[in-house]
Amino acid sequence: MTQSLKIDPYGFREYDARWLYKKDINSEGIINLGKGFGTQIIKHTKKNNPRIVVGHDYRSYSEEIKIALIKGLVSTGCFVEDIGLSLSPMVYFAQFDLKSDAVAMVTASHNENGWTGVKMGIKKGLTHAPEEMKELKEITLNQNFIINEGNEKKIKNYQDIYKENLIKKNKIKKKIRAVVACGNGTAGIFAPDILKKIGCDVIELDCNLDWTFPKYNPNPEDLKMLHEISRAVKENNADIGFGFDGDGDRVGVIDDKGNEIFSDKIGLLIARNLSKSYNNSKFIVDVKSTGLFLNDKILNKNSCKTIYWKTGHSHIKRKVHKEKALAGFEKSGHFFFNKPLGYGYDDGINSAIQICHLLDQQNKKISSIIEELPKTFQSPTMAPYCKDEEKYKLVDDLIKKIEKLKKDKFKIDNQEIKEILTVNGIRFSFEDGSWGLIRASSNKPSLVIVIESPTSNNRKQQIFKFIDNLLQKTNKIGDYDQKI
Fold this sequence. Notes:
Elements: E1 17-20, H1 27-45, E2 51-56, H2 62-75, E3 79-85, H3 88-97, E4 102-106, E5 115-121, H4 130-142, E6 151-154, H5 158-167, E7 177-181, H6 191-198, E8 201-205, H7 223-235, E9 240-244, E10 251-254, E11 260-261, H8 263-277, E12 282-286, H9 297-301, E13 305-309, H10 313-323, E14 327-329, E15 335-337, H11 348-361, H12 366-371, E16 377-378, H13 388-407, E17 411-412, E18 415-421, E19 426-430, E20 435-440, E21 447-453, H14 457-474
Parallel strand pairs: 2-3, 2-4, 3-6, 7-8, 7-9, 12-13, 12-14
Antiparallel strand pairs: 1-5, 4-5, 9-10, 10-11, 14-15, 16-21, 17-18, 18-19, 19-20, 20-21
Helix pairs in contact: 1-2, 1-4, 5-6
């Protein structure tokens, strides 16, 4: 007896697909997802038998899900090339290296066990954005599938090809002592090996594969993971600590003193270092990132330009591609390196390599290099509850209010609003470089609030009071997840 189809429509997210397996999707649902994606690929490539690279992460059920996905893809006429146990960036790399038409990576990234998902892309180096996800959802749920005959083949030892591509062009001279933490996720069989072979002295931390994740989820924003890396850095007198997420597309960084370095500040250090060799470059950063990029003396000296863009790895990736930027940085730890440093997609190991180059080229500790950046007072990301059906309209109303306050030369802590950016909610900046951000969350019923001031902690607090006062007056805001 065949099982009944189960596929929760809410699993189609903004950039990828994620479900609790088998609660929200079963294998029949995964087969249909494969049929939907295969149909979408054929529609966009206009090929009867497009070639698809498929990989999976190290969870107990990921291979089972991959087999079901492949079954669906093959039924539409796709020629599937299975590269086996992979990182997401390995699958993205394979699309360029094997000249395939599309990619599908079975992973729930850093989500807890029980979750599964698929990261997908058709255009090289770009994963699905909201438009593609909406189209995929409609094809899959309406079962508007193409039926044709495809095939499947396994490509063996592809891990070695991916590793060698990163190793061969990135050798370093200095013996950098690096703690490499993988949270028992898939990066454990990639990151230590690659970093050793470029010349690092690697101290492995939770790099053996264990799909139960016995200590913590492989997530570089997880405090348990960061505390473990910090402890290992101090115990081993290491130069730096790297923490990789479950599918290897993000990295978190701990300095030689055991302190976490926010990813937007790491991005600025990398941009500064790259600007010396690549004058006149463009860098893309998300709207949650530090304002230091705009007036940075080294970036300005090397005639580099920074563009602030929508938060979300798919948005930043596409903007890097469109602007032909050298690199892109997202505060969550997704870094994107374009040619000649990479292919434009996010790869946590390549990000760690670029940080190693930074240390290799400067005779200083990472903590000293960070101290050279101007000090700023940054808030954490704060998320007050706001209903999904109300949040976008609310942000639109707030944009109009703040634009009027700017026009009226209204002052907050004796500062007038100087600039307004509305590519993703509203980011309003002051004469001294302080700024506040209000945007709707992409994936949950909340707003996102971030503030930074290069002047004082008090100014940061005053901007927050101004934002919070605006929000409370709407009567559409619930509790914050955290507050300054």
